[in-house]
TrEMBL record:
The lineage of its organism: Bacteria, Pseudomonadati, Pseudomonadota, Alphaproteobacteria, Rhodospirillales. Residues 19-266 form the Periplasmic binding protein domain. InterPro entries: Peripla_BP_I, SBP_2_dom, YtfQ_transport. It is found in: Cell envelope. NCBIfam families: YtfQ_transport. This is Sugar ABC transporter substrate-binding protein.
Amino acid sequence: TVVSTLASTLGAQAADLTIGFSQIGSESGWRAAETSVSKAEAKKRDITFKIADAQQKQENQIKAIRSFIAQGVDAIFLAPVVATGWDQVLKEAKESKIPVVLLDRDIDASGKDLYLTAVTSDSVHEGAVAGEWLAKTVGDKPCAVVELQGTVGASVATNRKKGFDTAIASHSNIKLVRSQTGDFTRAKGKEVMESFIKAEGGGKNICAVYAHNDDMMVGAIQAMKEAGLKPGTDVLTVSIDAVPDIFKAIAAGEANATVELTPNMAGPAFDAVVAYKDKGTVPPKWIQTESKLYTSADDPQKIYESKKGLGY
Ligand code: GYE
């Protein structure tokens, strides 16, 4: 047929490829969107795509990778729940000549030679964008900030904290008063925010909340409302991901800012693997996705409408 003739002139085609994806779980709206966008991107390219849901556990991810190796897949995508503890299993993949692509989170420097490329945003920069927005918004006023961190040991939690801390460091009026993990989930975000409010005498002194993702912020907004606080006006909010629900909150005046992260990490990863398999093209070690700030000035209702169908 025409198609197969074309395919043979072009060499190894995407349609011949089987790729396994060790996904973290479904802790956030962003994560759910990444999973569904990845499936759609695989389909577009006719790639056989197998997703293993690790339910937040690194041991499950390691098992999934070993099972993909045993199945002889052509490549493995890995969204590493934490940054350490991957060297052994990634060595096994390398010995089997199966390229590994990291999606959305990074691993420690010791593993740099063990994967082909990483498709991620600059998560230090995301934290800095959030911190700079806050500094600009509060001006010279004193501001006590509470922080909801992502999963302990995840590269994005470490980096989003680091970028934010650096951005506010030169503003002595801004003080981080409490910081704790909410594990990237709505439920934990709410629970931890409730404890912050209690510990801060009802929360009247809290000037701003910084959350490493929007889902934790949505939970925190709920906690603030239940405590009689007014998020978005009395308490400033800034978080990361740009999921539809945060735009709904911004449109309602209950949230202030978010830093966008594309859920399409797999698209560039598939393209890198196809070019590598097909032409031996070695991709750059880091394929960086964009980070963009959104506030109430950006027509949040319209963004909400346009995003909500996109796999979230
Ligand atoms: O921001 C968060 C998710 O690793 C970039 O993980 C990802 C983060 C994302 O659960 O919502």
